[in-house]
Amino acid sequence: AFQQFTGINTVMYYSPTIVKMAGFYSNRLALFLSMIVAGMNAAGTVLGIYLIDRAGRRKLALVSLAGVFISLCLLSGAFFFQSDGLSANPTMTSSGGWFAIIGLVLYIAFFAPGMGPVPWAVNSEIYPEKYRGTCGGISATVNWISNLIVSETFLSVVEAIGASGTFLLLAGIAVLALIFVAIFVPETKGLSFEQVERLWKARATDSSSHLQCLLEAGQEA
């Protein structure tokens, strides 16, 4: 759910709208910039496939979420700068628009290699074999329901609290996701399904020595 509630598909679905909200009213330019965003998402996902077994799932997710938070704050600041009319100077408004575009590009650059593939990879590894299919299906359902909620409410939320407030809200969710990953998500790089299952059992019984052995085995793999 955190994958969706940090706003990725909102950005993908509404990127032309976001570009126009940033002050770029040309349909051609808005479409061109949104195509760049989509291309970066594809390229970033390919990069994530390369990094996921090298950097590790947990580290990649943490770095990704930290970057997503910074990018969303930049987007929020850019729209705050524009919408509150801190300057009636068109040059300043244009600068705010470009800051929004930079924030959008950075958001994709950080999200795509980490929070794009990592949740799906971890989701396929963490469940006991007996329940893997069922739990995977439930997770996918939750993911797409979350996608529906975020995409359907985005414009309404923007209308209610403004673009700046909306992106700040998403930044807050990114912080919650960062805390969740830091506390609850184990590193599963290099571990077999059986080792991951033992890792969860070690966590449940607070067997720190066994847990450390499993983590070291994953790092050596």
TrEMBL record:
Keywords noted in UniProt: Membrane, Transmembrane, Transmembrane helix, Transport
InterPro entries assigned to the protein according to its UniProt record, in alphabetical order: MFS_dom, MFS_sugar_transport-like, MFS_trans_sf, Myo-inositol_Transporter, Sugar/inositol_transpt, Sugar_transporter_CS
Primary residence: membrane
Gene3D superfamilies: MFS general substrate transporter like domains
Transmembrane segments: 29-53, 60-81, 101-122, 134-155, 161-185
Protein topology in the membrane: Multi-pass membrane protein
Subcellular location: Membrane
Gene Ontology terms, MF aspect: transmembrane transporter activity
GO cellular-component term (any): membrane
Record-linked Pfam families: Sugar_tr
PANTHER family: PROTON MYO-INOSITOL COTRANSPORTER
Family membership noted in the UniProt record: Belongs to the major facilitator superfamily. Sugar transporter (TC 2.A.1.1) family.
Name of this protein: Major facilitator superfamily (MFS) profile domain-containing protein
